[in-house]
């Protein structure tokens, strides 16, 4: 119900303004050595949408999201061709520092990976490495980010305790808060709830709903209900190809491709 | 082979009783549990292991007790106040021997200091390089080479200090004496580099990869990630490696005996001959004093002092690894 409503407003917005793409992927191919992992991907991702990427294991969905902030560079033997434009700038271009890209595009990982530092330092880290030393700004940002990640009330009395003392779900929200501190444009989430229990998962999902007011979110998930619950657009990946990319309710209610239908109705994957 | 085992298996299969029904695996399992050997050997093993453990503990205890008793004997002849307060060490004087440990301690400290100044920065840089920057191939080549460096006998290092490092240094600083603190200090530093590198590298590499990814994904550079996230996370292991390296420098004997000279000196000068606690012990045990003399007992007092130093370093290492431990 609301999903449809949200989508229709989103669609009408984008009709009015064609400049709303944050990411535009054109003919992207990617190889791990000889393995052709992404095949001719073309995707336009809109601003302030929650875009879900679904598909069976090994379909390339994680590879794709890691390419968006070039974390894929860390994997040895990766080759790409084609382009990904972030705000109309080629992310593979030599003129676009990978550090700048990753500052503007935050990432939340599959398993919570806070730094082995205090809760406070986890948030302050991003500001400090980017040269912000003003204590007042840092303090304000720490509070704002933790509030933004719906974690402030739970941790405000123990900001200087180690982040590893938090529960898994809290750690994951801390990682989201850590992203928010840099006020990113896009947040990439690579199966952010796959290591969490159902209650923590629900909290993170609610958080994503709030975050989409301000951020563009791209989320990889193997949980189809999750994609249906939280996303505006869904891309279905299979064997390194985008089978279908459309509004989430179209994908789940009347998919155009029979393979999408088979996957979402649980016939494989 | 009628037995409990057979009954158990038969029950499980719900079939007949004869042996030929048993598969080869079942026959072997039955044999294992019917022999009775397992029970006996499981009882003997902890006893054997305990004896081994007891032997090593008792040996250590024996050594410490010997040190203590002989040191007490030494202090019957020499005043303990003189030992700790006098700044002269002239045990071989026929008329008026003086036993003030300070010059020997100072000699050890000089060597340790130079070795540390030399080895800690290099060791940490190499460890950071190997764990954060080097490719798998470079690491596979460099680590074994460093381990070879750790396996070089110290007498070879001593020889290297005296016949290579000292002459080179004297080319540059003509005022340097043949026996000095700098050359053996540097070579002791070279000797402890592998210890520092190997343990620090282990500590750095054991910081989980996702932590690195987290930092990189926030736009930190490789160096920012290494220096502000990985290094602090590995700090306890790194400090422990340094303490261990330093305590090896304190106890190092051969290099200083060969290249540092044998002149106990209370001067702070690094360019002249000195004697460390260890090299004094070598000097005495290689024949300069007869059994039962005061000089003979003095090596126990010096050895005990040395033992206190290294023990303190080990305790420091333990404390550090507990205090700075980060959980991942």
CATH class of the largest domain in chain B: Mainly Alpha
Counting structural domains of chain B, the number is 2
Mean residue pLDDT of chain A: 90
The second-level CATH architecture of chain A is 3-Layer(aba) Sandwich
What fraction of the residues of chain A are assigned to beta strands by DSSP? 15-25%
Task: Going across the biggest sheet of chain A, name each strand in turn.
Answer: 6-7-8-3-9-10
Full CATH superfamily name of the largest domain in chain B: MetI-like
Rg of chain A: 18 Å
What is the number of E strands of chain A? Answer: 10
Q: What separation lies between the terminal Cα atoms of chain B?
A: 54 Å
Question: Gyration radius of chain B, to the nearest Å?
Answer: 29 Å
InterPro entries (chain A): AAA+_ATPase, ABC_transporter-like_ATP-bd, ABC_transporter-like_CS, P-loop_NTPase, PstB-like
Keywords (chain A): ATP-binding, Nucleotide-binding, Transport
Protein name (chain A): Phosphate ABC transporter ATP-binding protein
GO molecular function, one term (chain A): ATP binding
Structural features:
A: 269 residues; alpha/beta; 39% helix; 25% strand; B: 328 residues; mainly alpha; MetI-like fold; 1% strand; globular; transport (chain A); PstB-like (chain A)
């Amino acid at each position: 119900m609301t999903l449809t409503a949200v989508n229709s407003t989103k669609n009408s917005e984008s009709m009015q303004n064609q400049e709303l793409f944050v990411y535009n992927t054109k003919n992207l191919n990617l190889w791990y050595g000889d393995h052709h992992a992404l095949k001719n991907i073309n995707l336009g991702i809109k601003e302030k949408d929650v875009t879900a990427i679904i598909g069976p294991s090994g379909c390339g969905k994680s590879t794709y999201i890691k390419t968006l902030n070039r974390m894929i560079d860390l994997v040895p033997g990766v080759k790409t061709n084609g382009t990904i434009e972030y705000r109309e700038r080629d992310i593979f271009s030599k003129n676009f520092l990978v550090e700048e890209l990753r500052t503007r595009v935050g990432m939340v990982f599959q398993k919570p990976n806070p730094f082995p530092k205090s809760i406070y330092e986890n948030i302050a880290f991003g500001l400090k490495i980017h040269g912000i030393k003003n204590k007042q700004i840092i303090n304000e940002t720490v509070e704002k980010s933790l509030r933004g990640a719906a974690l402030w009330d739970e941790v405000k009395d123990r900001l200087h305790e180690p982040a590893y003392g938090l529960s898994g779900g809290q750690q994951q929200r801390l990682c989201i808060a850590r992203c928010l501190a840099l006020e990113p444009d896009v947040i990439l989430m690579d199966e952010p709830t796959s290591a969490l229990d159902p209650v923590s998962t629900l909290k993170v999902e609610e958080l994503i709903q709030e975050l989409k007011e301000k951020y563009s979110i791209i989320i990889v998930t193997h949980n189809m209900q999750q994609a249906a619950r939280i996303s505006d657009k869904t891309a279905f990946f299979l064997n390194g190809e985008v089978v279908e990319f459309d509004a989430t309710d179209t994908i789940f209610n009347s998919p155009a491709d029979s393979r999408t239908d088979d996957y979402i109705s649980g016939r494989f994957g | 082979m009628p037995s409990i085992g057979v009954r158990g298996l038969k029950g499980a299969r719900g079939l007949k009783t004869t042996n030929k029904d048993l598969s080869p695996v079942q026959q072997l399992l039955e044999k294992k549990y019917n022999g009775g050997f397992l029970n006996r050997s499981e009882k003997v093993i902890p006893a054997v292991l305990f004896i081994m453990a007891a032997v090593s503990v008792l040996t250590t205890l024996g050594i410490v007790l010997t040190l203590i008793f002989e040191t007490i004997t030494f202090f019957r002849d020499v005043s303990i106040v003189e030992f700790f307060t006098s700044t002269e060490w002239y045990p071989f004087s026929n008329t008026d021997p003086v036993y003030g440990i300070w010059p020997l301690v100072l000699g050890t400290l000089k060597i340790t200091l130079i070795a540390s100044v030399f080895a800690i920065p290099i060791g940490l840089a190499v460890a950071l390089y190997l764990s954060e920057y080097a490719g798998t191939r470079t690491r596979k080549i460099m680590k074994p080479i460093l381990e070879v460096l750790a396996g070089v006998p110290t007498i070879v290092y001593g020889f290297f200090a005296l016949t290579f490092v000292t002459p080179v240094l004297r080319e540059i600083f003509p005022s340097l004496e043949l026996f000095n603190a700098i050359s053996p200090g540097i070579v002791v530093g070279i000797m402890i580099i592998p210890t520092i590198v190997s343990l620090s590298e282990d500590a750095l590499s054991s910081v989980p990869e996702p932590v690195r990814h987290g930092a990189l994904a926030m736009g930190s550079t490789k160096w920012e990630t290494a220096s502000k996230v990985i290094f602090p996370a590995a700090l306890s292991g790194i400090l422990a490696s340094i303490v261990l390296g330093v305590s090896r420098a304190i106890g190092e004997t051969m290099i200083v005996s060969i290249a540092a000279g044998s002149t106990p000196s209370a001067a702070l000068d690094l360019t002249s001959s000195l004697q460390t606690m260890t090299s004094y012990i070598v000097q005495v045990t290689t024949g300069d004093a007869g059994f039962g003399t005061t000089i003979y007992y003095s090596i126990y007092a010096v050895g005990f002092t040395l033992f206190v130093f290294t023990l303190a370093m080990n305790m420091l290492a333990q404390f550090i690894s507990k205090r700075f431990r980060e959980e991942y």
